[in-house]
Write a structure and sequence with these properties.
Structural class of chain B: alpha+beta
Helix content of chain A: 40-55%
Order of helices and strands of chain A: HEHEH
Distance between the termini of chain A: 24 Å
Number of strands of chain B: 4
Shape of chain B: elongated
Strand content of chain A: under 5%
Oligomer: heterodimer
Structural class of chain A: mainly alpha
Number of strands of chain A: 2
Helix content of chain B: 40-55%
Radius of gyration of chain B: 22 Å
Strand content of chain B: 15-25%
Chain lengths: 137, 138
């Protein structure tokens, strides 16, 4: 019974964690806008979320093929999930940060992070309402 | 909590950019410096940025910035013929510093824009974290 309440929350929690991770990556890109040789990185959110919720297998993930193997933590992600962004304009110092794109992605990701927060708040409120008796509040 | 790392990343960038701004300020201040008694005029300085990796494992995406060293521009200084100048050499030439003020102004604008960008990143991260703290309260 409690499973049903927490399942919806679990999914949103994974999404929120990934949003936070993407926000961090984009902040790194913006911080390195003037560093020679730096290549911008990003994650494919839809694919990463499918991997985190176990819908598709993680690329290069550890497999438990024998008894005694320790299963990796759910949603564990490595370097493989991060892609290098293509340069839209080449520059002399081979810096691959496109500031327009990074700022746009950053704004987009902040809005979606907030949206995920609201979804979680909504689920919590629904669960709390369901737990109340009819003559309460 | 990975969002807190944003402050480290953007903070390192802000401090690197402010160091760049410092160097630009000292270059601009010395744009008209004349060579001293040793015949060596002020040489323009430039900062060199490098990616500084912070954290390991799952947090390996963190890439801050640090200033590795400050290089001196080795191009010869501007020489102006002015025999009346007290610092003029035997041929009547005065050696000024090799600072190019136009380049420095462009550098300054670029540094200040990057600084602003990183401050914006930090304030966005702060507001998102504050909203995360209020999770579940209505």
């Amino acid at each position: 019974m409690l499973n049903r309440l927490t399942d919806a929350l679990n999914f949103q929690t994974q999404a929120l964690t990934l949003r936070a991770e993407r926000q961090r990556l984009l902040a790194s890109n913006i911080a390195n806008a003037d560093t020679p040789g730096y290549q911008a990185r990003d994650i494919n959110f839809a694919k990463a979320l499918r991997e985190a919720t176990g819908e598709i297998a993680t690329n290069g993930a550890l497999q438990t093929t024998q008894r005694g193997h320790i299963a990796p933590a759910a949603g564990a992600r490595g370097e493989s999930g991060k892609d290098y962004a293509l340069q839209s304009q080449t520059s002399l110092d081979s810096n691959g940060v496109d500031m327009d794109r990074e700022r746009a992605s950053f704004a987009d990701n902040s809005v979606k992070y907030e949206a995920t927060l609201r979804f979680i708040n909504g689920s919590v409120r629904t669960a709390l309402d369901a737990m109340k008796s009819h003559n309460q509040g | 909590m990975s969002m807190f790392q944003i402050f480290n990343v953007a903070g390192s960038a802000v401090s690197a950019q402010s160091q760049r701004l410092n160097v630009v300020a000292s270059n601009l201040a010395n744009a008209d410096t004349v060579a001293g008694p040793d015949g060596q005029a002020y040489k323009a300085r430039q900062v060199v940025f490098q990616t500084a990796l912070m954290g390991a494992g799952n947090d390996s995406g963190n890439a801050g910035v640090r200033v590795t060293n400050i290089t001196e521009d080795s191009t010869p200084g501007r020489r102006v013929h002015d025999p009346k100048h007290p610092q003029a050499d035997a041929e009547g030439y005065v050696t000024y510093s090799n600072v190019n003020p136009v380049e420095e102004m462009v550098n300054m604008i670029s540094a200040s824009r990057s600084y602003q960008n990183n401050i914006e990143v930090m304030s966005t991260a702060k507001s998102l974290l504050l909203k995360t703290l209020q999770l579940g309260q209505s």
